[in-house]
């Protein structure tokens, strides 16, 4: 950046090492100026040293010099002019060139600082010769060697600083990534626990209350019309019904986020959208799988609905969604398929989910539990059978794979659901 460029961003507070280096530079400049003033052979040389010291001190305390390259260049120009005047008056000003090298390299961009250092070294050599000093190698070696040491020191420090900043940013990114990973793991664990609680409430509390209600209804029908116990049974049945409704509300509240914003059919359709992973827009409770359906990274997936959609119990929706997610994850990981299809079928007495791909296929009898702890075929089968359904896998090497799960529907589950279509 040229000296007339825009202001530099504010610097971070100095760490102990740069602070010490800056203090040493101030002390070096002050000591050399005092030495030049004391050894000057004229009052003019002493006055020139004092003016140079005043210019240097003013620049050290002016904030624009530390924040703007334009202000820094102007200050260096004034400081250089006062130094040249002192150099004209006394040869002792030669030694002030050494701290000037560091200032030029620190405050100016490289394309300007290196020529400035070369000109400063040349001026020091010419001044020393102009004051009548005998020509010898030391006249040239001293200023040039000082300039070389300053260039190597400053450029080396700047390279180390850039590497340190790069490492600092990398560490910050790693810390941020670790925090994001921990948050994702906590979110996945929360989803898994919510699903487990929903299943437990449905399979125990809700089912028990439903059984109590049926038994009370049967007892109510068996009692004589004028029985004094009929009123108590009716109140008990209504209490069981109210608590069953509350239990089902808890189950709905614990529904996975994939089902919170629509029906099962809509969630399955989102699962097939290009760029969606096997867990939709986020990681499921069983982990995540890289890959995007409908892109070069995975098979093209199509979703369809057969029959008249009805409102399904929440455990059914959760089970069918999770089985579809796991089946597609297996397709991406193992099948090397180009196409896959998900079909959700509503029939009179059951709801069926089919996931079919044209991949490599396998021998179903040779499947062993996954060493990665994934939600594999045995877990899918257990989930389906826990709801009274069936789970089948049809596959053969080179002939693709078809996964089918069927869950029974009772008459009360057959209520129409206008929003169930995809």
Description:
There is one protein chain. The chain is of the alpha+beta class. The protein is 60% helix and 9% strand. The chain has eleven helices and five strands. The protein has helices at 16-39, 43-61, 63-67, 69-89, 97-107, 110-130, 137-222, 229-253, 264-271, 314-335, 377-386, and strands at 300-306, 339-346, 350-357, 390-395, 401-408. The chain has a five-stranded mixed sheet with strand order 1-2-3-5-4. β2 (339-346) and β3 form a beta hairpin. α5 (97-107) runs antiparallel to α6 and α5 runs parallel beside α7. The radius of gyration is 41 Å and the shape is elongated. The two termini are 59 Å apart.
Fold blueprint:
Layout lengths: L15 H24 L3 H19 L1 H5 L1 H21 L7 H11 L2 H21 L6 H86 L6 H25 L10 H8 L28 E7 L7 H22 L3 E8 L3 E8 L19 H10 L3 E6 L5 E8 L14
Parallel strand pairs: 1-2
Antiparallel strand pairs: 2-3, 3-5, 4-5
Key terms:
single chain; 422 residues; alpha+beta; 5-stranded mixed β-sheet; 5 strands; elongated; disordered C terminus
Q: Strand portion, in percent?
A: 5-15%
Calculate Rg over CA atoms.
41 Å
Fraction in helix: 55-70%
User: Please, what is the average pLDDT?
Assistant: 75
**What is the total tally of β strands?**
5
Order of helices and strands: HHHHHHHHHEHEEHEE
* First-to-last CA distance: 59 Å
Number of helices: 11
- Principal-axis shape equals elongated
Could you give the order of strands across the largest sheet? 1-2-3-5-4
* Low-pLDDT stretches: 1-14, 277-296, 370-375, 415-422
Structural category: alpha+beta
| Major pleated sheet | 5 strands, mixed
């Amino acid at each position: 950046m040229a000296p007339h460029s825009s202001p530099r961003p504010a610097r971070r507070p100095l760490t102990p090492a740069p602070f010490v280096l800056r203090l040493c530079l101030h002390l070096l400049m002050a000591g050399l100026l005092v030495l030049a003033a004391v050894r000057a052979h004229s009052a003019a040389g002493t006055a020139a040293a004092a003016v140079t010291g005043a210019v240097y001190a003013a620049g050290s305390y002016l904030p624009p010099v530390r924040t703007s390259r334009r202000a820094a260049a102007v200050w260096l120009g004034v400081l250089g002019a006062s130094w040249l005047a002192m150099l004209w008056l006394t040869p002792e000003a030669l030694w002030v060139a050494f701290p000037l090298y560091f200032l030029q390299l620190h405050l100016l961009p490289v394309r300007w600082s290196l020529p400035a250092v070369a000109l400063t070294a040349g001026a020091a050599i010419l001044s020393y010769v102009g004051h009548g000093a005998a020509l010898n190698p030391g006249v040239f070696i001293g200023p040039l060697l000082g300039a070389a040491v300053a260039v190597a020191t400053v450029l080396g420090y700047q390279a180390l600083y850039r590497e340190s900043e790069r490492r600092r940013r990398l560490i910050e990114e790693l810390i941020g990534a670790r925090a994001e990973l921990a948050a994702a793991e906590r979110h996945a664990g929360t989803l898994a626990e919510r699903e487990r609680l929903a299943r437990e409430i449905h399979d125990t509390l809700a089912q028990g209350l439903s059984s109590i209600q049926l038994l009370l209804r049967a007892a109510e029908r068996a009692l004589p019309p004028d029985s004094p116990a009929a009123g108590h049974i009716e109140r008990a049945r209504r209490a069981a019904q109210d608590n069953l409704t509350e239990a089902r509300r808890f189950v709905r509240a614990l529904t996975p986020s994939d089902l919170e914003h629509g029906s099962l059919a809509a969630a399955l359709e989102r699962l097939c959208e290009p760029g969606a992973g096997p867990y939709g827009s986020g990681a499921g409770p069983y982990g995540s799988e890289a890959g995007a359906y409908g892109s070069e990274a995975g098979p093209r997936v199509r979703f369809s609905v057969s029959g008249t959609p009805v409102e399904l119990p929440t455990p059914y929706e959760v089970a069918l969604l999770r089985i579809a997610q796991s089946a597609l994850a297996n397709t991406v990981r193992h099948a090397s398929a180009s196409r896959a299809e998900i079909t959700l079928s509503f029939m009179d007495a059951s709801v069926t989910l089919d996931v079919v791909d044209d991949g490599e296929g396998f021998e179903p009898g040779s499947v062993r539990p996954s060493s990665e702890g994934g939600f594999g075929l045995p877990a899918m089968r257990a989930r389906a059978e826990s709801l009274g359904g069936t789970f089948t896998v049809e596959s053969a090497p080179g002939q693709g794979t078809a996964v089918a799960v069927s869950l029974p529907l009772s008459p009360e589950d057959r209520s129409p659901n206008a929003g169930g279509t995809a």
